[in-house]
Amino acid sequence: MKTAARPRTTGTTPLRSASFRRFVLANLISATGTAMAPLALAYAVIGEGGGAGSLGLVLTTNTVPTVAFLLAGGVLADRMSRSRILVAGNVVAAAAQGALAVVVLSGAASTLSIAACGFLSGVAMAFTVPAGQGVVNQLVAAEHLQQANALVRLPSNAVRVLGPVVGGIVVALCGPGWALAWDALTFLIAALLLHGLRLEKPVTVHSALSDLRAGWAGFRSRTWLWTYTVAGMIVVAAWLAGFQLLGPLLAAELYSGAGSWGLVQGAFALGLLAGALVCLWWKPYRLLVVAVSTASLLFLPLTAMGLGLPLPAVLVAALLAGIGLDVAIVAWTTAFQLHIPEQELGRAGSFNSVGERLAIPLGYLLAALAAGTWSDRDVLLVCAGVIVATTMVNLCVRDVYRVNRAVRQPG
User: Fold this and answer.
1) What's this model's pTM, rounded to 2 decimal places?
2) Which residues contact 18 (CB under 8 A, 6 or more apart)?
3) Which of 221, 248, 355, 367 is the most exposed place for a label (fewest CB within 10 A)?
4) Does 263 share its domain with 352?
5) Is 151 within a domain?
6) CA 220, CA 217: separation in Å to the nearest integer?
7) Which neighbouring-strand residues pair with 2?
8) For the ranges 164-168, 212-216, 224-228, which has the lowest average pLDDT?
């Protein structure tokens, strides 16, 4: 299988490339809608009379198709033009969110109709995620990959700081339907921008099933890749169980409730933004070691809340965790792009993404089971310990130390 030659950007920044600027702008516009969508979705469910069970059903119907179709999306990303897949996926997502906005604004929304739209959005995500992981490789030269990855995340992280606040204002003043309508519009605008990329498709010589088997063989043969995926699944599960599920409960118990929890989330989002800025100038040699190590900083806010430390200490811990996570994401993405052949990026990325998404129900389930035995604070400390222990085990894998920026895409 062959791919088009990598474009050779000139200058010291990938922003000199018009195609890369188009890709960043599409991501930024889409992020403004995505940041508002969770809040709007929750209030759309509440508005039609649903409770926690209904919201759980809606979120599940969005997650399940993503996991179910991710591997198919990975195979397709290595067989078709990735820009065309992104365009199609954004159009489908726009249609799903647009339909949801219409039923909410018309007052005809039900749990079933909201879940159906969420299912369609989940299918679209299953194909856009693997395709998106290989786009930067086709837009910028190898020496600019880390900077490009940081630049892609920088505006999106900035939106994460302000998006929920703006979304709350829009939902409060206009209702959730209009926030969902904006989300649909941003997907459509992103599709129009991505249409201009026109990336060449790979030349395929095998069947889709053969490509899937080859992708699994490649994933399994790279010890650093599958061990990082397994470790990442455990870390993400512990983080979601501790921070997302039990964090708000501890904020209500130990601090001032929703207001203090909003500050903690804001500190974490600011940390993500700062982490992207760090990656614009810091270029570590051992990329995977850095990715594994800095992700472990997620244990900090869990420990701070588990020990009942004052709110300022929790805010500092959340800020550091955000910095560490974004540095880890950029370092990991750069290592992944450098050490996986371009024609395998979609499939390898889909296997990695399946692990991450399986961590979502796993983390929530384990936290619910543990909460019946231990106190919430004890569960937080256990989750923090799991993150640290998993990191230490992953750092014992010798392959982790050979994944650096000096080696590019071995077969």
Assistant:
1) 0.81
2) none
3) 221
4) yes
5) no
6) 5
7) 203
8) 164-168
